[in-house]
Amino acid sequence: MRRHSGLAAVLIAVSLPLAALPCLEAAGADGARELAQASVRGGQSLAYASALTAIGPRLTGSASYQRAADWSAEQFRALGLAHTILEPFTIDRGWERVSARARLVAPADRALHVAALGWTPSTPEGGFDADVVAVDSFSPSAVAANQALHGRIALLPDGDPSGNPETAARTRRDFAVALRAAGVLAMISPDTDAANEISARGFGFGTAIAVLPAAQIGRDDAGMIRRLLARGAVRMSLELINRITPAAASVDNVIADLPGSDRSDEWVVVGAHLDAWDFGAGAQDNATGAAMVLEAARAIAALKAPPRRSIRFALWGGEEQGQIGSSAYIRSHASELDHVVAYLNTDAGTGPIIGWTAPGREEVIRAVRPLTQDVLRDLGAASFDDSLRYAFQSDGAAFILAGIPTLDLNADDTKYEEIHHKAADTMDRVDAHNLAIAAAAVAATAYAIADAPGRIGARQRPRTKRMD
Asked: Residue 19 — very low, low, confident or very high, per pLDDT cuts 50/70/90?
């Protein structure tokens, strides 16, 4: 059900429970509450998200990503944030899909639903025909013992290898190397969605090009191939054409600073990823998150006086390939991280907002709750938890590993997978009401933490691995 009937309805619905305050000079909790009301009434989050999706898919390293980065920097500067920069980081290769086709050649002739997996090579020009062999596990040793793989296309097992995302990615890389050594020509990986719908994704984390051409194939098509293999040989035609840079590529994070009033050497960082997979417009993943960061900057910059601490607004590249941009930031700013009071991340779409998650940091919740409870209660977003469920699935991961108190915006994601990485991730699926509420919560929480008398938590000892 679409509920984005425009900001006018949002303003009426949201402003009713918020107490009317006469000006934007109050500090602390009252200031955060007032800031939220001003953000809802005059917020631009819907306009920001619409403009970003109009730029188009923002695949890391692509021309459209760079247009989005340039546009975002212009918006920050227009708000008066003079210290706005494009901060580059390097990826192994730039990659973009051009075309993909596949057909079943025998025992029947029919088109198949396929798309290249991100950061994988093309097939030889013109593609090829080859028999298909189903592989039962992601075990490299089992591959080495399988003589039937030479000159074939390998149909991979459903799902991902076991373990956390980093472990699974390593297993996939080792598995692909084993397949190539066994003489496999290409890999096809079953998607998880019904009706042959395909979600954009890579073969694993990172931007190094995989060792074999690889494609996603619709789940129903994969099931049909397995049934046919049970009765005899299956042959298919496959052609994948991708555009790959000849060398490493530079990608820009967007960084904009709002100096604090009397503790300007301490920072609250508010961030979201700007990049998006390329099937759709990347509206909820993550134009809306980037829009919340821009709206927080607009709302706080409009105050007559800034909060005590500085706020750094950041839009990251490379999140979809394994939080590359935010991790690069942590490395390049390592000497400054003791001055980072908190990191706030928004990458949750526009389901009804729940509140904030502080992964593994119950003491951070105890410190933030009294600073924000009134405004978040008014917004219907006063729930906190310290779950690790999504801790390492977005750009908060690099900050958590660096020991920095991290808050991740938490929203109801019941329907999120319906559009996640799909062509359906467009503006007409964005809920403007929830977007305005979430943007106000981000702005108010960032302000409250930046203006608090003390820090919300100590920096912990940095980690090299994710928490269990």
From this structure: very low
Question: Residue 436 phi/psi, 5° resolution?
Answer: -65, -40
Q: Is 228 inside a domain boundary? A: yes
What are the φ and ψ backbone dihedral angles of 167, each rounded to 5 degrees? -65, -45
Per-residue model confidence as pLDDT tens digits over 402-429: 999 999 999 999 888 899 999 999 999 9
Residue 148 and residue 43 in one domain: no
Degrees to nearest 5, angle at CA 31 with 30 and 33: 65
Looking at residue 223, which CATH number applies to its domain? 3.50.30.30
- Check residue 428 and give its pLDDT: 95
| Cis ω before 124 (30° cut-off from 0) | no
Q: Are 119 and 203 in contact (CB under 8 A)?
A: yes
> Which of 244, 264, 289 corresponds to the end of one domain?
244
d(CA 80, CA 301): 7
Task: Judge contact between 377 and 440, C-beta under 8 A.
Answer: no
CATH for 429: 3.40.630.10
Q: pTM here?
A: 0.92
Both structure tokens of 122: 């093309």
**How far is 210 from 452, CA to CA, in rounded Å?**
47
Q: Hey, which bits of 181-299 come out as E strands?
A: 186-190, 214-217, 235-244, 249-258, 263-273
pLDDT tier for residue 287 given thresholds of 50, 70 and 90: very high
Domain holding 186, by residue range, is 95-244
Q: Encoding tokens for residue 461? A: 């000892």
CB of 286 closer than 8 Å to CB of 326: no
3-state class of 287 per DSSP?
helix
Q: What is the 3-state secondary structure (H, E, C) of 189-214?
A: EECCCCCCCCCCCECCCCCCCCCCCE
Region class of 73: left (phi > 0), else alpha (psi between -120 and 50), else beta: alpha
Do the domain assignments include residue 1? no
In a domain, 467, yes or no: no
Residue the block writes with tokens 């909820």: 284
DSSP string, 36-68: HHHHHHH--HHHHHHHHHHH----TTSHHHHHH
Quote the tokens at residue 48.
């920001």
The per-residue pLDDT for range 298-348, each reduced to its tens digit, is 999 999 889 999 999 999 999 999 999 999 999 999 999 999 999 999 999
